[in-house]
Every structure is written in structure tokens, then in C-alpha cells.
Amino acid sequence: MLTMWLISKHTIFTRKNYPVSTQELNWYEIDRFLMGEAWAGSQITKHLTELADVIGPRWGGSDEDRRAAKYIRSEMESAGLDRAEIEVFNLDSWNHGNVSISLPDDGDRPIGALPFLRCKPTDITAPLVDVGHGSPHEVSAFGDQIRGSVALTYIAPEPFTTAEPFTARIVRLSEAGAACIIAIESKTGGRMEYSNSDEWLNVGPQKDAVAVVKTSSEDGAYLRRIAGGTPRIAVSVEAEYFNTEAYNTVAEIEGATNPERHLILAGHHDTVLKAPGGNDNTSGTIGVMETARVMAALAAQQGIRPGLSIRFATWSGEEQHLQGARAYVARHYGSAASPREDKPLLNINLDELSTGHMKGIVLMFPHLRHFIQKHLDTMNDGLRCHVLAHMDAHSDHFPFVEEAIDASITWRWRFWGRHETANFHHEIGDAANKLNVRELKEYVGQLARLLLRLSQVAPEDWPENPVSVEDVQAMIERDAGKHHPAFHI
Ligand SMILES: [Zn+2]
Question: How far is the CA of 368 from the centre of ligand 1 (A)?
């Protein structure tokens, strides 16, 4: 017999005999179940061990990417989801071999070197020029001296002038003729994290930007001390571009009342090279898996299914320019291929969840703000719905945004208010211990509660989405190359 204690009265039965009522659900008992299951039934430690320790770094298209996808799919199946699949897509990938920075006239002093992601191969010996932060006044002061040189620059912007993202300063140095750029890491203690040299608001990875190689804060300071004598410096990067298969996973709980429409909770399971990605993004991957598990448990044990279908996806290739999410969106929601009715009503993207506890969600378009806030208020946890005032292309919500699909993120590392101790992503030190287990449990319970509430609203009762693909293009053009103050740099 079905346990009926979650349903007060006037229960209705759908074609699948699942009891559903949009009005009569006992949210107090449902919330107790979801938060309790997220906490007491947690599989976080098991998934963390498998993904971050046993499989380890999961560069998109690698064998580890495939193993992670197989693991996630099989765990989704065990959790009782209605379907759980791997979707293969073609990834435009990159890898590097030997990389070095050396001073031919300065003996064997070792200099830390890490190529930017998708850095093109280079092998150059040229004069070193210290261009400060690469600001307009600094670059113009050098006149033609930058042409053919190796330009040394901070990643952080100059604090005394209009802040620009590093990508804009790379373009300036490239246009000034720099043959190669050495970027000085902002973090100290020899740490170096992988960075990108191109503007992500431009669709697709670019291959022809000038070679950019990072050095550590300490080695960068040394190079600045000797740069006055314009020493010769040698930079070598072995790199190759290639195409390969990569692996997304998609699972679903079918909706009880409106199964033809869906919400999608997703996050990337790939990492940068060499990083197990405890924070970025084993945390978000497990957030997806665990939210799916507790919602499936509610359906199996208490007979409460979402009204709309809920899709749970993990993407590969995020670190290689969002290629996994973009492939999925193109295949299933591409403008030409599918009408608005086939697209999700909302994408919630999970990325780097160890940087702060659940504070709410941040929408990319404004029209759902009050609707979602109203549902958050019923959870009585002080969660807020915000709207980002600019286009953010730095995670997997963006391919949805490009198709004018409502998309959102949670409190990511970029925003002010993150934990100061959670300053790890894109580097070897982003290991399993960077995942905050207790906070992730809270995320899971809260996300399940929010998704279940939103799923109970019939599609025709959602605020209409007035945004067109052309509107999005205009917003992208407005924001490309600008620095945004909500972000850390
Ligand atoms: Zn990430």
C-alpha cells in the first residue's frame, strides 16, 4: 500500500497511478523527507571517492571522462530514475606536452610554467618586456618595443584605472605585436591555475590567439626584477589540437501531471588537466546526482513525483569552452530543430558549490524573479532570487542562455561572499578535500525542495519568456570584453 501521509486530502491519480495534487501536498512533510534524505541518506562521500580519488582528473574526451560518465549513469540508474543515458558528442580538444620558460643567459634557474588552456604551440627566444598590467597607458608607453617580444604582465588588472578582464589585455598585447605573453599568477606560494586566453562570450574555442603561458607569483616577481636589463627569455610549449569523443550523461524523473515539459538541473563532470576537481566540479556533479536521488526516493517511497519532468545532466567539455552543454543544447533544443514548448522552462546550473553555502539562485533573465522568489519564500530559509545584470559565459548555463532559455546559477566562486578558504579551482590543489560535504547536503535538500515546488506549476502558469535569440546576441555584444564588478578576478 502506498504511504499516504504526505498527502492530506483530495488526492488525484494520474494515468500512472501516482498520487498528485498541486494544492494538497503537505509541504511540511515533503520538506522533512527531502532534507532528511539529503542528510541521512547521503552518498556524497562515496561519489567523491570514486570521482575525485579513484578516477581522478577528468579532462573532457579522456578515458577518465568516459569512466566518470559510466559511473554517473549507473548510479542514476541505481537511484531509480526513469531513464539514465550517456550521450556521446564530438569534442574539439587540446593537450600539451613539454612546457618551459628559461633564461638562456641566467644559468639553470628554474621558472614555473603552465600553458593557458588551448595555448598554441610556441618555441621562441626573444627580449623580455615588463608591461605591468597591460593597461592602455602602459602598453602605449612602450611604443614599438613590444613587437616581437615576450610580454610579462600581471593577470590582475591595474587597480588605478578602468578594470578590464585579462582577455581584453591579451588582445591589446597581441595587437601590439607581442610574440608570446607570460602571465603572472595572482595566487602565491608557487600555485598556478589553468586559465583561458579568450573571451567566452564569443562562441567556440579560438586557436589562433597569441601563446600565453603562466608563471608563479614568485617567479613572476623575479622576472620583473631582472626585466629592466631586457634579458633574453625562451618559452617553449608543445601542444596539439585534435577531435575526440566525449561523454555527457542525462537522466530523468518523468513528471506526473505535465511530463512533456521539463526543468533541467545540470553541472559539468569534467575537470582541467591534472586536477581532481573537488570543488570544480565534483561538487556540482554530486549535487546533480544527489538531488536526483532524493527526488527519486520521494517518488518511490512516498509516491510524490514532480509535476513537470525533471532532467538531471552532467556535462563534459565545460573546461574546453562549454562544449558538452553546447552539444546537448544544439541536439535537443536548437532553434531550428525545436519549438519553445520542447525547451526546458528553467536550467539550474551547478558549478563550484564548495565556495559558499546555498544562498539562492541567480537568473540570467529577469522575468522569473518574482515567481521564483515566491516559491523560495515558502521554504522559509531566507533564500534569495537575484538577476545578473550582464551576460556570464563562464559556465554551462550559457549555451542555454544563447538559445534564450531561462537559466540560472547558484552562488559561484566569482561572487563576493565566497569562503576565503575555498579559493581552489583549475589547479592540482583542487582535490577531494576541497568539497564541503555538509554544505553540499544542504544544497541537495534545498534544490530538491525548489525543483519540486516549481514542477508543480503547470507550464501555462509560468511567466512567459519574452527573450529572443536576437535579444541575447545584443546583450552579448553589449558585454563582451568588459569587466563586471560582481565578480572576483
Ligand atoms: Zn566549473
Answer: 25
In the reported structure, the alpha carbon of residue 351 is separated from the centroid of ligand 1 by a whole-number distance in angstroms of 5
Nearest CA to 7 among 22, 23, 24? 24
Q: How far is the CA of 352 from the centre of ligand 1 (A)?
A: 6
Region of residue 345 (phi > 0: left; psi between -120 and 50: alpha; otherwise: beta): alpha
Centroid of ligand 1 to alpha carbon of 8 (angstroms): 42
pLDDT of amino acid 482: 77
Q: Is 127 helix (H, G, I), strand (E, B) or coil?
A: strand
Q: What is the distance between the alpha carbons of residues 62 and 319, in angstroms, rounded to a whole number?
A: 13
* Full-model pTM: 0.92
DSSP string computed for 294-315: HHHHHHHHH----SEEEEEEEE
Q: Per-residue confidence at 2, pLDDT binned at 50, 70, 90?
A: very low
| DSSP string computed for 365-420 | SSTTHHHHHHHHHTTTS--EEEE-SS---SSTTHHHHHTT--EEE-S-TTBTT--G
Q: Is 14 helix (H, G, I), strand (E, B) or coil?
A: coil
Tell me the sheet residues that pair with 85. 250
Is the distance from CB of 181 to CB of 114 less than 8 angstroms? no
Structural domains of the chain in order of their starting residue, each with its CATH number:
12-93+244-479 (3.40.630.10), 106-230 (3.50.30.30)
